[in-house]
Amino acid sequence: MSNQFPSLRPRRLRQSDSLRALFQENQFSVDDLVLPIFVEEETSEYAVIETMPGVLRIPESKLAYEIERYAKAGIRSVMTFGISHHMDATGSDTWNENGLVARMARICKDTVPEMIVMSDTCFCEYTSHGHCGVLHDHGVDNDATLINLGRQAVVAAAAGADFIAPSAAADGQVQAIRRALDEAGFIDTSIMAYSTKFASSLYGPFREAGGSVLQGNRKNYQMNPMNRREAVRESLMDEHEGADALMVKPAGAYLDVISDIRAASRLPLAAYQVSGEYAMIKFAAQAGAIDERKVVRESLGAIKRAGADIILSYFAMDIAEQGVDFN
Fold first, then answer.
1. 197, 282, 294, 304: which is the annotated catalytic residue?
2. Distance between CA 301 and CA 64 in Å, rounded?
3. What residues have CB less than 8 Å from 208, skipping those under 6 apart?
4. Which of 109, 219, 249, 294 is catalytic?
């Protein structure tokens, strides 16, 4: 045979569906997915989120029904976000034992006890200024915010939350929450830290979904999107402070960071496919530019391939109902 023909032919292992499946290196399933949900108090109607086609704000009165529906489809975990009608300067409703944070966790666990409930632990949806903590003249007061994060975490744990998921991007938040939980007797409540949370432009649709009233921006406490080494440092700091799992947010534009943290840590690693990532796929599909089903699975597969063990995605119910198969 002439040397002009290859002796190494990787295509031999791609000739059929069966061969491709046999030699596939990475896989994901619905068990790897967490469904983020938006729950609004003091309303009886579902609300359309124009910037996130297919995602609705759930009225609190319908939350039990939705949790049962998710469980029947195969969803094992949800992340709860509240749309509050009781905002104030500090987000104090979040540490009210009968406030929305507590009620969401309680309803989920009472309805489907085996559902893993992750309570997003922050203040941006509960403060009148939309920032992630106590706002002073110089900006968000990091240490005053830590105290309130501990209060919120204890209330969520008491209501049944399995995971506290601090997203306030406050220095020392994992340590403060771990101490507060342990002192309150919740030693078995886990922490999934938003350990590398970038000041991303991809959060835009979330602002509508969560009813954000943000004044200004969060660049002075969320991470610079151009910083890769700092991203690893942030996650390793949260590991040292006692996090049980780490998270990178957003996911798709930060696959390098997911890979770096996977190499640096042995903790479970989550990645959040955020609202902007979801919206880009949805609107591109509506325009006929892409095949939504295939792109959803390819994007989730890429996040898994980069090293994420768990993926938070608004497409989780689609995967549960339609299956993982690309075809």
1. 197
2. 31
3. 49, 50, 51, 52
4. 249
DSSP string, 40-61: ESS--S-EE-TTSTT-EEEEGG
First to last CA, the chain: 38
Concerning whether 219 is annotated as a catalytic residue, the answer is no
197 catalytic? Reply is: yes
Quote the tokens at residue 123: 């203040």
**Cβ contact 297:323 at 8 Å:** no
Separation CA 43–CA 79 (nearest Å): 20
pLDDT in tens, 190-240: 999 999 999 999 988 877 776 666 666 766 778 999 999 999 999 999 999
Tokens of 253: 């534009």
Per-residue pLDDT tens digits for 8-44: 999 999 999 999 999 999 999 999 999 999 999 999 9
pTM of the model: 0.94
